[in-house]
Description:
Shape: elongated
Number of strands: 12
Helix content: 40-55%
Low-confidence stretches: 56-62
Radius of gyration: 23 Å
Strand order of the largest sheet: 2-1-3-4-5-11
Structural class: alpha/beta
Number of helices: 12
Amino acid sequence: MSSVxxxxxxxDVAEYAGVSPKTVSNVINNFExxxxxxxxxxxxxxxxxGYRVNIAGRQLRQGRTGMITLAVPELDVAYFSELAKHVMxxxxxxxxxxxxxxxxxxxxxxxxxxxxxxxxxxxxxxLSPLALQPRDLATRDRGLPVVLLGExxxxxxxxxxxxxxxxxxxxxxxxxxxxGRRRIAVVGGKVRGPxxxxxxxxxxxxEALKAAGIPFNGDLVVPVDAYHWTDGARAAAALMxxxxxxxxxxxxxxxxxxxxxxxxxxLGRSVPGDLDVVGFDDxxxxxxxxxxxxxxxPDKKAIARxxxxxxxxxxxxxxxxxxxxxxxxxELKVRESTGG
Length: 340
């Protein structure tokens, strides 16, 4: 006699939850017309029994692989590696495997991801683009479901998940203004050009200054070559050696902010005594720096959940409904670098 326990089936989940097998199937497939109470009961039963959705046969019959691609610029930028973890967890929960692709922010690699690498091994793509042009999305093959993360190069081109970057930067700047800071530099900012993340966050900063009656000074917006530790350190050192010496830094990701903190330490500047520093992304390292970093925290779990759900909806029903844009919440985490 085999000692291996029988694999739980849908009817076992239904009996445990006190519902019909059809209701269990509706919950597994994320159908809308199920009450929250019933949905929770089914999910508790699934967890308790260790039930796993057996989608392999169904996918083969439908000509699918059960795999989705996540394409991000750089895995050594912690925001993207943390986001990838959440996407993988959510995809696994939905019975899918994630193929991870690093684009390096290069247009040709982003195009390859956008078109599924001209191979039939992925059912859809979640893509965080840096270099794609509006025409790239306007002319893409609509047969491959795609969800973009971050800012869209073209409106109405594909499904999309992001935070409200203008509002987030405005709130971070308002926090600095409320602390009496008036010469706030934007590390990684952009005043002109396409409305990417850097431009939108700079716009939010400008809105906050305008509302406070403080003139905008373009010399305090400092572009960077990349969003790495060294770029933040280099920008902070240059600002402190210039005639435009700031009393606060709004850094457009946490890597820039943590690099800036190191440069300020080496220059003998105290944070938050001489300057305040704020970052974006709330990566794990931001909680362990000295001082700990005040940062805008996007809801990475919600981004992953929305992106995977949108993509799977398009895979299941490619031509159903208009293109969707999901705006996910964020929170300013106030820590020691601004006196928290």
